[in-house]
């Protein structure tokens, strides 16, 4: 009994330590946002937030710019997620289930695209987007981010579909199902957790993306939060507390999306155990 | 049952997200930073990293508003480009035939842009003969008899010090070192400078003062002299201060400038633009300015030209704005905003400014001995040479290699680069 209790206690402590490591940066942003200038550079770091400084959040939101940035980020991230998942599912399915010439090459090329840094793509993409009048638009950023994240989404989903027994599809084929029907009715429900995981990757990629956004967007009202926050960094001064306040608010929607998607990842992981 | 629920939730999520994307596509900004004409009014965009400064940015915006109110044919809007990636972003946009109509560049990017043909020649657009331009900084605006820019801001480097901590500023390097050491205790540091690769441009600006202040130079105008003995001496002085732990290591400029404003840093070398910022952000701070106490009176200067994007469709209108900016009263107003910096033309400092910042004359007296932070003779390649030099100097700071070897390596790499 006592051995069991020690085991549980150790596990709880372990979870708390891991949670602390994960949550501490968020907490530190919050504490920094609520620090006075004197506290910010004091020898002894202030570990608790000073709620009398709460006005920094109101100041950051006062002119509505920060909310516009957050809205733009949300649109870009959701758009990228939907588009990359929408295209990644059939691409992953084709790579998993169909035999065609150049299949291996396609997979390798998809993998290689992940090795190209974004900075390398900025100039050619800029020229392309200029030609198609996609600069300074959220649609352009959704396309750019989707192009960048689609390969990894497709490869994740290919791996998930690989794991589904072909017999299930054969049974469907006997019942007269076409490939699209089999994909949507048989495979997609079974790879829900992988779709959720891929969605998290796509969302976070687009949410945090900076290089494309800062280059392709000119108008302040179209900038996402990643660029908006960087705007606070001035040549001779930076309002640290304001930056931290906006950065803290910037992290919250991403955390919320992760919690939403994580539910489906966990649901999928436990589904097998219930069915036996 | 579970599968159905998951599918329904996914469909619902996808539908909701799709609606958001659709709405987004509909709400895409139809404004562009490119010049646009609407009802006879031409809208220009003006990109300047100073618009983001908490102290000077709002005042510069008011200055733009004055231009917009002065006539009804042109509107100049501030383009929002973050300072950390300003040069890279704007150069990419201009290279792609887009970007702001007007740009305030720093010298390395100005040189690179003019060399690449991204800047419109001003000779036929602005008649500079009618303005009393300051000769020393203005000579850097002309390449092969073609004018590419007009000085927007010229700002000399000097030594800022906390007058509560340092009643008498040091006048020699040894004093400077000793003062920095004696004041470093607990959470107070005697000095601060940039020392990380993340702030490549800033490190370049800082080490420039050490190199030129010890009699060195990055080139003789025809050949690179990165590993010259004087450069080694100057950079050794910089490294000695780093090794002596008198600076907040790892702190970026934003952090240590706030520390200076809070009395946690006693000295830093900075340009005149900083003075106005400090006055606006920390009105109670008792600071002053003195020449940099290095053996040779030679220091860097921020020269920031205003230029017209070659890709702009409204060059005439952009030139109209530059002409307005060069008018005496608008130069005086700009001078007041920029504080210790100079502008394109000779202006009188107001008695109010001199009373508020008596040290302004220190900056003015340094104009003759200040140099733009470019490699003379290799102006267009300065950003690439800067990267090589900064990488090698930081490697030496971190103890990966000795300083002499680092400079030899930088000399070799940069020579290979320029051919």
UniProtKB/TrEMBL annotation, chain A:
Annotated SUPFAM superfamilies: MetI-like
Keywords: Cell membrane, Membrane, Transmembrane, Transmembrane helix, Transport
Gene Ontology, cellular component aspect: plasma membrane
Family: Belongs to the binding-protein-dependent transport system permease family.
Stored InterPro entries: BP-dep_ABC_trans_perm, MetI-like, MetI-like_sf
A Pfam family recorded for this sequence: BPD_transp_1
Membrane topology: Multi-pass membrane protein
Subcellular location: Cell membrane
BP-aspect Gene Ontology terms: transmembrane transport
Organism (species): Jiangella anatolica
The name this protein goes by in its record: Sugar ABC transporter
Predominant location: membrane
Residue span, ABC transmembrane type-1 domain: 70-261
Source organism, top-level taxon: Bacteria
TM region positions: 12-30, 74-95, 107-129, 141-161, 182-207, 242-261
């Amino acid at each position: 009994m006592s051995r069991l209790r020690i085991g549980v206690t150790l596990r709880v402590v372990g979870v708390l330590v891991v949670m602390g490591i994960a949550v501490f940066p968020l907490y530190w942003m919050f504490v920094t946002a609520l620090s006075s200038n004197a506290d910010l550079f004091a020898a002894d770091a202030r570990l608790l937030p000073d709620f009398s400084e709460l006005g920094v959040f109101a100041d950051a939101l006062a002119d509505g710019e920060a909310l516009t940035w957050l809205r733009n980020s949300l649109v870009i991230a959701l758009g990228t997620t939907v588009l990359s998942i929408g295209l990644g599912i059939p691409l992953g399915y084709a790579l998993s289930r169909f035999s065609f010439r150049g299949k291996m090459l396609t997979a390798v090329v998809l993998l290689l695209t992940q090795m190209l840094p974004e900075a390398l793509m900025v100039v050619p993409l800029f020229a392309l987007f200029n030609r198609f009048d996609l600069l300074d638009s959220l649609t352009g950023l959704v396309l750019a981010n989707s192009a960048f994240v689609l390969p990894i989404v497709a490869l994740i989903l290919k791996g998930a579909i690989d794991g589904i027994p072909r017999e299930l599809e054969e049974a469907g084929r006997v019942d007269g199902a076409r490939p699209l029907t089999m994909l949507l009715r048989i495979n997609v429900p079974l790879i829900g957790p992988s779709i959720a995981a891929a969605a998290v990757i796509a969302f976070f990629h687009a949410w945090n993306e900076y290089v494309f956004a800062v280059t392709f967007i000119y108008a302040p009202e179209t900038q996402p939060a990643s660029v908006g926050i960087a705007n606070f960094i001035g040549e001779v001064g930076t309002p640290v507390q304001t930056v931290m306040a906006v950065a803290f608010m910037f992290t919250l929607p991403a955390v919320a999306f992760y919690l939403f998607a994580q539910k489906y990842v966990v649901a999928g992981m436990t589904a097998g155990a219930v069915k036996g | 049952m579970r599968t159905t629920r998951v599918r329904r939730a996914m469909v619902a999520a996808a539908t909701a997200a799709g609606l958001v994307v659709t709405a987004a596509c509909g709400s895409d900004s139809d404004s562009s930073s490119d010049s646009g004409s609407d009802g006879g009014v031409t809208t220009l965009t003006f990109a300047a990293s100073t618009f983001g400064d908490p102290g000077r940015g709002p005042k510069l915006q008011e200055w733009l508003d004055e231009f917009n109110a002065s006539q009804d044919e042109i509107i100049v809007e501030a383009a929002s480009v973050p300072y950390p990636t300003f040069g890279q972003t704007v150069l990419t946009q201009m290279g792609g035939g887009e970007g702001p109509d007007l740009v305030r560049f720093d010298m390395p990017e100005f040189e690179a842009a003019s060399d690449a043909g991204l800047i419109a020649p001003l000779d036929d657009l602005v008649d500079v003969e009618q303005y009393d331009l300051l000769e020393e900084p203005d000579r850097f605006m002309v390449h092969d008899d073609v004018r590419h820019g007009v000085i927007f801001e010229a700002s000399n480097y000097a030594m800022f010090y906390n007058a509560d901590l340092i009643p008498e500023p040091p006048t020699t390097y040894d004093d400077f070192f000793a003062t920095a050491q004696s004041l470093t205790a607990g959470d107070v540091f005697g000095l601060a400078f940039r020392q990380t690769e993340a702030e490549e441009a800033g490190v370049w600006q800082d080490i420039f003062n050490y190199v030129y202040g010890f009699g060195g130079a990055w080139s003789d105008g025809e050949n690179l002299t990165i590993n010259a003995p004087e450069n080694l001496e100057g950079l050794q002085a910089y490294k000695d201060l780093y090794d002596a732990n008198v600076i907040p290591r790892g702190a970026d400029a934003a952090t240590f400038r706030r520390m200076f404003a809070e009395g946690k840093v006693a000295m830093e070398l900075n340009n005149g633009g900083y003075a106005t910022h400090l006055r606006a952000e920390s009105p109670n701070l008792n600071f002053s300015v003195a020449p940099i106490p290095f053996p040779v009176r030679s220091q860097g200067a921020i020269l920031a030209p205003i230029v017209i994007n070659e890709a702009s469709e409204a060059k005439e209108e952009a030139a109209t704005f530059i002409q307005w900016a060069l008018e005496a009263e608008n130069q005086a107003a700009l001078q007041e905003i920029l504080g210790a910096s100079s502008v394109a033309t000779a202006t009188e400092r107001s008695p109010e400014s001199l009373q508020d910042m008596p040290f302004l004359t220190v900056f003015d007296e340094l104009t003759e001995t200040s140099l733009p932070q470019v490699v003379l003779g290799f102006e267009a390649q300065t950003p690439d040479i800067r990267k090589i030099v900064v990488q090698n100097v930081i490697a030496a700071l971190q103890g990966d290699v000795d300083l002499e070897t680092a400079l030899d390596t930088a000399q070799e790499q940069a020579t290979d680069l320029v051919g």
